Amino acid sequence: MPKLSRKRFWSGNRVELVEYRGKPHIQWWDGSKEVLRVAKGQTLSEQKAFAKSIDEEIAQGSFVRKSRSFADMCEMFLEESREQVRRDRKGLSGRKISSGRYVELAGHINNHLMRVSLPDGNLRNIIMKDIDAAVVVQVRADLARRLKGQTANKVLNTLNRVCVFAIERGDMKSNPVRDVDPLPNEPKREDYTPSAEEVAKVVECAPERYKPIIKIAAMTGLRVGELTALEWGDINDGVLTVQRAAFRGAVKSTKTSNGLRKVRLSQQAQQTFDEWKEKAPQSVYVFPTTFGRMDSHDNWRNRGLHPACVKAGVPKFGWHGLRRFYINSLLDAGAPEDYVQKLVGHAVGSNVTAAHYRRIRDENVLTDTLTVSI
């Protein structure tokens, strides 16, 4: 076995702890090929312990010799994920995921995990077998500086999936993500419910592509998944039939059996549909992409609704805010609650409508009719 002259801190049966380029490295020989890796640990005693653990793993035959980098593993993981999407579309056997789930996984990897900066370098360059619980804690801390807890935990879940994938291919022995607690979620923020005047301002400030989507959401109370999967055949003689919804890029049945329903369109809502149909891309879907495929409501929110809120000077609200606007507009107009529940797909008699959707604005109660004199 060749020998090189380096300062030696520790020697085992196969592994040595040596100085290389001014830093402690573990060194061993794989046949005639020298292998050098930075010794993990902040102190020399920790680095010696790390070298000893590698020496023991090699002796036991459990050492992963050719572990790939995190970037390479993610590339393989996404390639396999694309194959799972293909199986899902063609109804083939084997592991399957929806195209929407693939988009989410790819976004977590490319937009977040590949940008994680650690004390010893970027996560993308770390060898998979060197990712332990301490590294995952550092990843969690980096994500926490840039993301909300709930979003960071979703990204960590994707890291968990990549590690499982690496274990299955022999690049890791165990999954360190499971040894690290998730970040605490922030208290759920109450989504703002706009007034009619605020909805009108947002529609006015929205790009032309998104104006009809926002208007129909406000005038029908559809869940955003129902709106995404809405087809032209669902609109007939001023009545809209809700019979499907989109979830993670796939079309499925409505959220509950109560979601199957019919909604009478106002004259303005029907006119909005008629005007949009003349300029909409050719598709069975009412609000498709420019290529005629089912669109993503995340795109609608990020490119249309939220920028329009900012431009209009209105507090940001989501698609659920428009659903609440619809419900409260009907209740404020005196519609019976059970009728409203039927229209929005809630179980008649349920307390969900009152507990989670009903909003009373200050201006609603500051009226002469709600005063008391003696």
Task: Note down, in words, how this protein is organized.
By secondary structure, this protein is an alpha+beta fold. It has 3 domains: 8-60, no CATH class; 70-179, DNA polymerase, domain 1 (Orthogonal Bundle), CATH 1.10.150.130; 196-361, Intergrase catalytic core (hpI Integrase, Chain A), CATH 1.10.443. It has helices at 44-60, 70-90, 99-111, 133-146, 149-168, 196-205, 211-220, 224-228, 267-279, 297-312, 319-332, 337-344, 352-357, 362-365, and strands at 8-11, 16-20, 23-30, 33-38, 117-118, 121-122, 235-236, 239-242, 245-247, 250-252, 261-264. The longest helix has 21 residues, at 70-90. The protein is elongated.
CATH topology of the largest domain: hpI Integrase, Chain A
Based on secondary structure, the structural category is alpha+beta
How would you sum up the global shape?
Answer: elongated
Roughly how many Å is the radius of gyration? 29 Å
Assign the CATH superfamily of the largest domain. Intergrase catalytic core
- Major beta sheet, strand line-up: 1-2-3-4
| CATH top-level class of the largest domain | Mainly Alpha
Q: For the residues shown, what is the average pLDDT?
A: 89
Straight-line N-to-C gap: 104 Å
Summarize the structure.
The protein is an alpha+beta fold.
Write a concise keyword list for the protein shown above.
4-stranded antiparallel sheet; 374 residues; 3-stranded antiparallel sheet; DNA polymerase, domain 1; hpI Integrase, Chain A; 14 helices
